[in-house]
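Title: Request for sanity check on Cytochrome c oxidase subunit NDUFA4 prediction

Description:
We are preparing a figure and want to confirm that the structure record we downloaded matches what your pipeline produces today. Could someone re-run it with the sequence below and paste the raw C-alpha cells into this thread? We only need the C-alpha cell string, no images.
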Amino acid sequence: AMFRVIVSHAKKHPSLIPLFVIIGSGGVGAALYVMRLAVFNPDVSWDKKNNPEPWNKLAPNDQYKFYSVNVDYSKLKKDRPDF
C-alpha cells in the first residue's frame, strides 16, 4: 500500500524521485549495517549453549570494526594472557 502511494506521488511529481531513491538507499544501508552488526560483532552471541562468550575467541589481529583509520590489524601482536 505504501509503495503504491510512493509510485503515485512520483508519477505526479517526477522531481520527488531522487528524494525517494536517496531516502530508500539510506534505509537499506542502515538495515544492512544493523544486520552486519548482529551477525559479525563479537559482542553478540546467538548460540549461548555452544559459544557463550564469542569475544574470548578473537585473535589479536581480527578486525571486527567496520572501518579503522590508523590501525593495521594484520601487524598486531598478542598482548593479553590466555584464559
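Thanks, this matches our download. The mean pLDDT is 82.
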